[in-house]
Inverse folding.
């Protein structure tokens, strides 16, 4: 399946959608992708993440949110499925994509400095959709006065 075809599978409707806790949307000039997510916004939830899960729906993910922009690192200890990690700054702009982190690998994966949020999705999906640095995320975890793609803006 081509990147455009995969992107079309995840494209949301053209109707402006207000931010929802359980939805993260990403966009660039190439298109829009929508994920049904769980939010990990406290220390315990971030520590647990997607560990010990055997499956993750194709259009699902987990959004890790930090109280302030910082240097963050992940590992795959006790994580049973390959994941893509999308690291974003306080504006919701993608700064780094780590493709296909391997299950159970304890090697650190760093996202860089100034990271506020990290979206984990199925391994290989970011590449199929074409998600790269510069994409913007729409979610209410992003301070709307700083958001590259505010909730109030139509698609």
């Amino acid at each position: 399946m081509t990147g455009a075809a995969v992107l079309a599978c995840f494209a949301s409707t053209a109707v402006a959608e207000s931010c929802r806790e359980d939805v993260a949307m990403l966009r660039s000039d190439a298109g829009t992708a929508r994920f049904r997510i769980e939010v990990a916004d406290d220390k315990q939830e971030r520590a647990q993440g997607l560990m010990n899960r055997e499956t993750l729906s194709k259009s699902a993910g987990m959004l890790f949110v930090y109280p302030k922009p910082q240097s963050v690192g992940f590992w795959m200890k006790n994580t049973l499925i390959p994941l893509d990690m999308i690291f974003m700054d306080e504006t919701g702009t993608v700064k780094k994509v780590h493709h296909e982190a391997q299950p159970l690998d304890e090697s650190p994966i760093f996202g860089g400095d100034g990271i506020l949020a990290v979206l984990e999705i199925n391994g290989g999906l970011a590449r199929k959709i074409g998600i790269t640095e510069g994409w913007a995320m729409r979610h209410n975890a992003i301070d709307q006065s700083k958001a590259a793609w505010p909730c109030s803006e139509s698609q």
